[in-house]
Design goal:
mainly beta
Length: about 350
């Protein structure tokens, strides 16, 4: 099921590992304000937008599931039974013939809550990126702005296996019903569009996992001291767990970003390829995303995943990445071949 914690567990232990797995020391003076997050049971945002965007408008069209809709859904093949109950699902939500949702497995889901309440959310696609999503209050024109921090793109925090689509009558009087959905079109592969249904308009939504909600606050002296000593490294971001169990994100907005020449390693070539094909096709150029990984860090370690490829349809068929790289101080190039799920290491500390 696309959003089920049974299929994609994101427990508190997992969250701690994501946030605190790489502990580093910092002596940089930090800003006085931190964003403090409180853990919540995972919620799910249905988002519309350019996958490569870091900000935009239209958040008033985004929905929020406060509970995992997967286990609460009804299979397409059981829609007749749902009709006999007046559209009331076993989980007590009500089916709306004028506005209904499907997941990639062919489950009819309850509608999310519209719109996502303004605020700050710690979001992830259950891959390697965690970011702060800010949803701004609605302006006078009815628009709600959104933005992701620390350079994250909407694609980076999208859970790729999840597919969700919203179906509504294509025109006045059109019959838009799950009866017309082609059951053989499910399940839908990651990266593919959801199937069209005769008589319906369709919107495909990205799905983001919300693992904590936050507010900006003036940190106590103890929190500031902790920010200076440890935390998980993200571009421009350090996250840590405070004594009361909240998650504190510490940033230094005045810190200069890395520019060409300051990055301690160089990448000549980086291709994602497939062992299954003798020609090692398809291929995907992973160099741009690898070059942006480590900023100015001399020791850079990250997992090889489809997030290194800007083409999701190509990435899902790859098995490994081949990289030619060297430290700035070196004269010769190195070659690494690393399988997906394993770590690529650039070590230029000497």
């Amino acid at each position: 099921m696309p959003f089920s914690l049974r299929t994609v567990p994101l427990s508190v232990v997992r969250l701690c590992a994501l946030l605190l797995g790489f502990v580093i020391a910092s002596t940089v003076a930090l800003a006085e304000t931190q964003v403090v997050f409180k853990r919540i049971d995972t919620q799910y945002i249905a988002a519309l937008g350019d996958p490569n965007a870091t900000s935009g408008t239209g958040a008033q069209t985004w929905g929020l599931w406060r509970k995992d809709p997967g286990p609460r859904g009804v299979w397409l093949r059981r829609f007749d039974r749902l009709k006999t109950t007046g559209g009331v699902a076993p989980a007590k939500w009500k089916f709306d013939q004028e506005d209904w949702w499907l997941d990639e497995n062919g489950l009819i889901m309850e509608k999310p809550e519209f719109s996502v309440p303004p605020g700050k959310y710690l979001v992830t696609g259950d891959r390697e990126t965690i970011s702060v999503l800010t949803v701004h209050p609605m302006d006078d024109s009815g628009e709600m702005r959104w933005e992701l921090e620390y350079g994250a793109k909407l694609y980076d925090v999208t859970h790729l296996p999840c597919r969700s689509a919203r179906y509504r009558p294509a025109s006045l009087g059109a019959v838009c019903t799950p009866d017309n959905a082609l059951k053989g079109a499910f399940p839908v592969n990651p990266g593919h569009s959801m199937p069209a249904v005769p008589g319906c308009s369709k919107l495909d939504y990205a799905v983001l996992f919300v693992v904590a909600k936050g507010t900006e606050t003036t940190a106590s002296a103890s929190a500031q001291a902790t920010c200076r000593s440890s935390g998980k490294k993200h571009p421009g971001l350090r996250a840590l767990e405070s004594a009361d169990g909240s998650l504190v994100l510490c940033s230094n907005p005045d810190a200069p970003s890395a520019v060409a020449g300051q990055i301690p390693y160089m990448v000549r070539r980086a291709d994602m390829r497939s062992f299954a094909d003798p020609s090692q096709q398809p291929r995907c150029d992973a160099k741009p995303r690898i070059e942006s990984k480590c900023n100015g860090e001399k020791l850079c370690i990250f997992e090889v995943s489809d997030a290194l490829c800007a083409e999701p349809e190509v990435a899902k068929h790859t098995t490994h990445v081949q990289v030619e790289w060297k430290c700035q101080a070196d004269s010769s190039w190195r070659f690494d071949r690393v399988e997906r799920g394993k770590e690529l290491v650039f070590d230029c500390r000497r």
